[in-house]
Design brief:
With about 80 residues, the protein is an alpha+beta fold. It has a single domain, classed as Rhinovirus 14, subunit 4. It is built from two helices and three strands; from the N terminus they run βββαα. It has a three-stranded mixed sheet with strand order 2-1-3, with no helix packed on it. It is elongated and about 75 Å long. The termini are far apart.
Length: about 80
């Protein structure tokens, strides 16, 4: 490795928008976060399905048609 080109590794203070703060290793003195493990929807269990442009309904309709076609083929 080349000398004197790498940033200094030190204790970094992380601050989340929810108020959670913790220390970990990093190259900056302080890093501000939008989401952390205390407020992220996946980790809190408050995850909700985001339906963009009716994609879920289109998928359900397509699945129902393919299931009906399979049932019809099985009866023949």
């Amino acid at each position: 490795m080349k000398a004197e080109i790498h940033p200094e590794y030190k204790q970094t203070h992380f601050v989340c928008s929810c108020g959670n703060d913790f220390h970990a290793g990093g190259t900056a003195d302080e890093i501000r976060l939008e989401l952390c493990n205390q407020c992220h929807p996946f980790y809190t269990g408050k995850q909700k399905l985001v339906d963009t442009g009716g994609r879920v309904e289109r998928y359900k309709q397509r699945y129902a048609r393919s299931q009906a076609a399979r049932d019809a083929a099985a009866k023949k």
